[in-house]
Design brief:
This protein is an all-alpha fold. It is about 75% helix and about 0% strand. It is a multi-pass membrane protein. It holds the Pfam family COX3. Belongs to the cytochrome c oxidase subunit 3 family.
Length: about 200
């Protein structure tokens, strides 16, 4: 009877091996460093956000409807990456890769909206070097956008690897760690949405 389950994986394949455990632990340490980095960018932005003598202010620039849609898209992508990991734990490779593909599509949609948003701001006189406010804004939000772009590329490569190698104790930690990374950049965006956009609109 058990012959059908010879290829079955442990309940938590991402930490089934020492290498897998080390990958996950190492990744948490990496995220710790990223938190410090983003913390510095947030602190710089908060210090400089009212320094806009030569250009439009946050209140004049930001359109919460557009940014609200971007936020909705990115938060939904966090949910689809959760579904991917649930599928992984159920050892349903097809579902895992399908949910990851949906996550990538949401990530690309978010990036498209952010590029459009930056394009509009530049046309309204909000260039990178316009003011201390604009420089700190583009550095923080652009740095996050670069993380999203990296995540999209990373997950896309993992989808191809999954198609080729399937789900094993070697590939599972990679899927799991990529999902953690995606949750991290979504969480950072919630802070950006609150600190940059909401506080910028509501007042100083």
């Amino acid at each position: 009877m058990s012959s059908h389950h010879t290829g079955a994986l442990p309940a938590n394949p991402e930490t089934a091996t020492l290498e897998g455990k080390n990958k996950v632990l190492g990744f948490w340490l990496f995220l710790g460093a990223e938190v410090v980095l983003f913390g510095c960018l947030f602190a710089t932005y908060i210090a400089l956000r009212n320094s806009a003598p030569d250009g439009p202010t946050a209140e004049e620039l930001f359109k919460l409807k557009t940014v609200g849609w971007s936020t909705f898209i990115l938060l939904t992508s966090s949910l689809t990456s959760v579904f991917a990991i649930i599928a992984m734990h159920r050892q349903k490779v097809g579902q895992l890769l399908a949910w990851l593909a949906v996550t990538v599509l949401f990530g690309l949609s978010f990036l498209g909206m952010e590029i459009y948003e930056f394009y509009e701001y530049v046309h309204e006189g909000h260039k990178f070097t316009t003011s201390a406010f604009s420089t700190s804004f583009y550095t923080l939000v652009g740095f996050h956008g670069a993380h999203v772009a990296f995540g999209v590329c990373w997950i896309t490569l993992l989808i191809f690897q999954g198609l080729k190698k399937g789900l094993t104790v070697v590939t599972a930690p990679k899927f799991y760690v990529a999902s953690l990374y995606w949750h991290f950049i979504d969480l950072v965006w919630v802070f950006i949405f609150t600190v940059v956009y909401l506080m910028g609109k509501v007042g100083h």
